[in-house]
Amino acid sequence: MMNLMNMMNTWRNEEEDEVEDDDEEEQSEKKRKRKIDHSENDVLLVVKMLLDTIFGDTKLKWKSGEKTTDATKRARIVGQLLSRGTSCSNLMGRRSDLVLYNKSNVVLCLSELKDGNSESNSIKQEAKSLRCSKSLLSYNKPFSQKDIWSLDWNGFSGYTYYLKSYNDVTVVLPGRSLSIPLVKDSIDDFEDTLIALYEFKEHMLEYDHSLSQEFTASMSDELKVYHSP
């Protein structure tokens, strides 16, 4: 949390320096014209640091690096067999930017991030995220009837959502909006994001607790994680 507070103080100081250097009219014009393009890696570093801080008192761990999971691999195999009937020996699961594991290396959440600079990329990310979360819901369903929660980021704005099964239909429901401040004027709103993320953590802890111990023990050895080349 200290790293996060230091970063927020840096944002405050940078904004104050700009106000001192420019008169009010120039500063207003500068804000209208200024557009900072952050890379996906920039977003990932900040978001992971925030999540690591919030989950720091649990045994749940976030891992990054475009990881794949057995849940999404199985979904792709089923889709391949139904559509083409061809060999699936070389198929891998879909890669996810952030993956939440419990202490036995069982996947609890798959999350996607984009830099927020392209609307089309953001739409593709949302579709991919839903497919991955649905795969995870189906994969873990025999061992837990609880809803699957996830969160996605588009730049430094994001949201939580959850999937639930209803009469064999998967329904997507909204959670809370998220926003990481980049200027001091937005810092007051950050409290709502922190509350939403702590609520999200409670959902993850409840979901982890709901998984049967047999499933957790067996998956500890069987779950494989593949790093992208």
UniProtKB/TrEMBL annotation:
Report biased composition (Acidic residues) as residue ranges. 14-27
Residue span of region Disordered: 1-35
Polar residues composition-biased segments: 1-11
Q: Which domain of life is it from?
A: Eukaryota
Q: What is this protein called?
A: Uncharacterized protein
Q: Which organism is it from?
A: Choanephora cucurbitarum
